[in-house]
Structures are given as C-alpha cells and as structure tokens.
C-alpha cells in the first residue's frame, strides 16, 4: 500500500495536492473547531469527577440496557452531541482510568461513534438535499438504530463476564456527589495544569484526526485516478441491483464507504424519481462511519486493549439497521408530512434552519479558532519545557 501511494503521488502530483488541500481545509475549517470544545469539555469533566457523578445517576439505565456501568452514559451523550470519534476518545479514557473493563469498553465504543445532529441537519439535509424536513427522518433512523446496536452489543463477551460483583449503593444525589468528590481528591494536579492537559490532549487527538482526513482524501482520489475505484464499483453495481437500487449509485456509495462527506455529496447529486434510494444509501454510510473515521477510531483504541473487531461489526449492523428503518419510516416521517403540509422553499428552509446557521458560523470562523488553539498549545508546551530546564 505504501509503495502504491508513493508511485501514485509521483504520477499524479497535482491531483494529489488538490485532494490534500481539500481534506486539510475540511479539517481546518470544520472538524477541528467543531470537535475541540467537546474534547476539552470531556477532559475537564473527567478530571473533576463529573463523569462519576453522571455515572452513579445513570447506572440503573445503562446497566440493564447496555450492560455497561453508568459512566458509559457520558460517552453516549457526548458522542451523540459532537459526533465521531468522540465516543472512542471517551471510551479509551475511561478504560485507561480503569472505570471500564475491556469488554465493557468494547460495548461502549460500538454504539457511541455516531454522526452529530449538526452534520445530519446542517450538512446532509440542508446542505446536500436542500430539504430541512429530511433531517428528522435521517436522525430518527440513525440514532434509533444506534441504540438498537447498543442493546445487541450488551451480549458481547458475556461468556467472559467477570465476576467481581460489587455491592452497589442506593442511587441518590448524595451518592453521586460523593463519587464525584472522591474522584476529584484523587487528582492532585492544580487547575491550571488540568486545563493545560485538557487542551494539549484534545489538540493532539484532533491533529491525528486531521492527518487521517487528509490521507483518505488523497487515497480516494488516487484510487479513482488509477482505475481501482471504478473497477470495484462494478462489483457494487451487482450488489445494488440485487436490492433493486439504481446502479448509478455504485461509485458514490463506494466513495461514501471511504469518506462520508464526499460520498453523501455524490449520492445527492444523482437525480432519481424517489429520494428513498438516496436515503437508504446515506443512512448506511452514516452508520458504517466510513473507513476514514474507522481508521481514526482504530488509532485511538490502539493505545488500549480495546479491540477493533467488535466496533467494526457494530458499524455493519448499524448501517444495515439504519437502512431498514429508513425504508419503514420513509412514508410516515417524510412523505405524509410533505403531503399534509405546505412545502417550504429550500432557500427559506436553509435560512431558517439552526443547524445550517451553526454550520455556516463554524465554517466562516473555523480557521481562526484552529489557528488560535494551535497557538495556545504551542505556548503551553513552551512554558512547560522552560520549567523543566
């Protein structure tokens, strides 16, 4: 693979540079500023024991449903709010701190790496489809199927189940506050150091994410230029025809399996009599995550003993369930609303949609926030190196 990339880069330098810049711009303007606040917040909440507070309160929900401790609820909520790969990042941290066993962490990773509402409503429904009402259908199918995946994965590793049964205290606010206080006392770092570590750890992870986005942007382009992607797309045409889906979606769908944004955009550009085939394929690639995001998750999990295979199985299951739910709910959640309500012009829906507004705000100011954050990281590293000398 490395030799192939090297030879392709020499043969197509201009196209590779263009793809690299496109991937870098996506990271610089959107991904970094969108995820950085969530990453820093997660690090701080972990350090201050708030996660343990939430864990005690949500134990009666998380254990029966997903067979994981209550602290896993924090990863679920943050993953749902900010999108991938936040869930993997939090699961890895909880595993490193010993708050989850290996099997419990694998269960948590399986259903906490999903798309964010901002991406579904802002980028997909309004940005690509120019129809804000589609966001409800896509989101319901995506998050419902994700919860079902979590319930299914509760049986993962049951044959290796431990044992060790702790005497559980009665759930109450007092118990939750005690757990939070104990966690905070264990961390002897001053507030300034905690904040600095939160910023540095978050930026390091996001730089890694940016590297994978740029790499896969170039890889997708090179595979297309050398004819590998069109050849594989021929096999996908057969698969799509078996499911009565238009074969024109083969190449866009294959691109989406590598990188969600590129594939979703290509799928929405193909005109069909019904939106259902497009929604089925987009629901699948959103649940599948794409190889680019899977590589990011694998890199985060590599520092722990959390295995990648259960996560990959969950991605296939999530994509399949989301597609099935899309077929079932397409009429009640979209067609019926379209016929019973006056259609809103796409331009007006775009202007009034809060998701689209936030996405535009992040895009316009994302580069500035990225530059500012990297500057802070450099200052923190410089000051710490000076203290060591």
TrEMBL record:
Pfam families per the UniProt record, alphabetical: Gate
Superkingdom, natural source: Bacteria
Stretches assigned to coiled coil: none
Keywords assigned: Membrane, Transmembrane, Transmembrane helix
Keyword Membrane: yes
UniProt protein name: Sporulation integral membrane protein YlbJ
Gene name as annotated: ylbJ
Organism: Oceanobacillus chungangensis
Record-linked NCBIfam families: spore_ylbJ
The keyword Nucleus is annotated on this UniProt entry: no
Lineage summary: Bacteria, Bacillati, Bacillota, Bacilli, Bacillales
Residues annotated as domain Nucleoside transporter/FeoB GTPase Gate: 30-124
Transmembrane portions of the chain: 35-58, 108-128, 134-155, 249-267, 279-301, 308-330, 361-382
């Amino acid at each position: 693979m490395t030799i192939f990339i090297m030879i392709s880069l020499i043969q197509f330098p201009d196209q590779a540079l263009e793809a690299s810049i496109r991937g870098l711009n996506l990271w610089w303007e959107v991904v970094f500023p969108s995820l950085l606040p969530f990453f820093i917040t997660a690090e701080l909440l972990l350090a201050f024991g708030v996660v343990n507070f939430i864990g005690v309160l949500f134990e009666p929900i998380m254990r029966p449903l997903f067979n994981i401790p209550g602290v896993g609820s924090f990863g679920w909520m943050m993953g749902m709010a900010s999108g991938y790969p936040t869930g993997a990042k939090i699961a890895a941290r909880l595993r490193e701190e010993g708050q989850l066993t290996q099997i419990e962490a694998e269960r948590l990773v399986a259903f906490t790496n999903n798309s964010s509402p901002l991406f579904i409503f802002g980028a997909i429904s309004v940005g690509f489809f120019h129809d804000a009402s589609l966001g409800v259908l896509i989101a319901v199918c995506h998050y419902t199927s994700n919860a079902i995946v979590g319930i299914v994965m509760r049986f993962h590793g049951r044959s290796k189940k431990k044992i060790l049964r702790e005497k559980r205290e009665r759930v109450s606010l007092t118990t939750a506050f005690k757990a939070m206080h104990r966690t905070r006392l264990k961390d002897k770092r001053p507030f300034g150091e905690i904040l600095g570590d939160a910023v540095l750890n978050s930026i390091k992870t996001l730089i890694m994410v940016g590297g994978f986005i740029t790499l896969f942007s170039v890889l997708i382009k090179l595979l297309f230029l050398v004819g590998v992607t069109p050849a594989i797309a021929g096999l996908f045409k057969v698969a799509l025809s078996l499911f009565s889906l238009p074969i024109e979606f083969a190449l866009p769908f294959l691109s989406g399996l590598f990188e969600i944004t590129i594939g979703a955009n290509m799928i929405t550009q193909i005109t069909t009599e019904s939106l259902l085939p497009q929604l089925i394929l987009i629901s699948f690639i959103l649940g599948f995550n794409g190889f680019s995001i899977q590589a990011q998750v694998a890199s985060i999990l590599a520092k722990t003993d959390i295995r990648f295979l259960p996560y990959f199985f969950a991605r296939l299951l999530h994509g399949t369930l989301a597609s099935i739910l899309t077929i079932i709910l397409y009429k009640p959640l979209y067609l019926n609303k379209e016929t019973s309500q006056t259609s809103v012009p796409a331009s007006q829906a775009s202007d009034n949609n809060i998701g689209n507004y936030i996405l535009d705000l992040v895009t316009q100011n994302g580069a500035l926030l990225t530059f500012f954050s990297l500057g802070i990281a450099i200052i923190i590293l410089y000051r710490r190196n000076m203290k060591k000398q």
